[in-house]
Amino acid sequence: MTTRPPQLRKRAIGLGGALVGIALALGGCQHDEVTASIPDDYKQRHPIAIEEQNRSIVVFVGHARGGLSAAQRADVMGLASTWLHEGTGAIHVDTPSGTPNARPVAETMREIQAMLAAAGVPPRGVIVRPYQPEDKRFLPPIRLTYSKIAAVAGPCGLWPEDIGPSMKNKSWFENKDYYNYGCAYQRNLAAMVDNPSDLEQPRSETPSYTTRRTAAFEKYRKGNPTSVTYPEAEKAKLSDTGK
């Protein structure tokens, strides 16, 4: 059995250590490039985008009944009301054609068009399109669809790296936010906002209530209290405690 001289053993150990150091350095550079592309601010990691989406309802019509039920009338009126507020295009009404319920569908369509007109939807705001159902064994509905501006964020639940301490996850030692942090907040804010344009710019001021403002200024000029007293305020109290 032959043994290596001490100089060769030292040289081999040094060369192995150098190779390990180079590998760790390259791995660290690669990880730093990946993590450097992820913004630290959750608003930049999970931005709220403004896009166009569809809102639709379906109206089922039986083969032996025409017209709308009370719940269906409420659905149609609700869609017409929201269209006036947020619609960005015409209301597309897809009606089944060549089906057993074709005659009740025609009667229901007349009622739907009358309700939309009564709600303030102009005639050019309704486009009726017939369609052939793929499977006529199922009851084909009437579909009412329109496009609107919506705010969206996400998707959430993405974990590109472990949030615990490890040699690869240096951000844990730097006390930085993990990638999914703030995503649920952004997504809920996008879902709750009434007008998505409010996220981009403030609304213009509405005209002031001149009559009420003049009355308050007149009380202030005379030195009288400017608070409003309501006659029914005393009736709303639960007890007379403290009098």
Put simply, the count of helices is 6
**Ends distance:** 108 Å
CATH topology of the domain at 54-148: 60s Ribosomal Protein L30, Chain: A
- Radius of gyration equals 34 Å
Helix share bin:
25-40%
Mean pLDDT: 82
Order of helices and strands: HHEHEHEEHH
Unreliable stretches: 27-35
CATH superfamily of the domain at 54-148: OmpA-like domain
Strand content: 5-15%
Total beta strands: 4
Shape: flat
User: What spatial order of strands do you see in the largest sheet?
Assistant: 1-4-2-3
The main pleated sheet reads as:
4 strands, mixed
CATH class of the domain at 54-148: Alpha Beta
Blueprint of the fold:
Layout: H1 6-36, H2 42-45, E1 49-59, H3 70-86, E2 91-96, H4 102-118, E3 126-131, E4 142-152, H5 183-192, H6 210-222
Account of the protein in words:
This protein has 243 residues and is α+β, with helices and mostly antiparallel strands. Among the domains are: 30-48 and 153-201, no CATH class; 54-148, 60s Ribosomal Protein L30, Chain: A (2-Layer Sandwich). The protein is built from six helices and four strands; from the N terminus they run H-H-E-H-E-H-E-E-H-H. The chain has a four-stranded mixed β-sheet. Strand 2 (91-96), helix 4 (102-118) and strand 3 (126-131) form a beta-alpha-beta unit. The longest helix is centred in the first third of the chain and has 31 residues, at 6-36. It is flat, with a radius of gyration of 34 Å. It starts with 5 loop residues before the first helix and ends in a 21-residue tail after the last helix. Mean pLDDT is 82; it is low at 27-35.
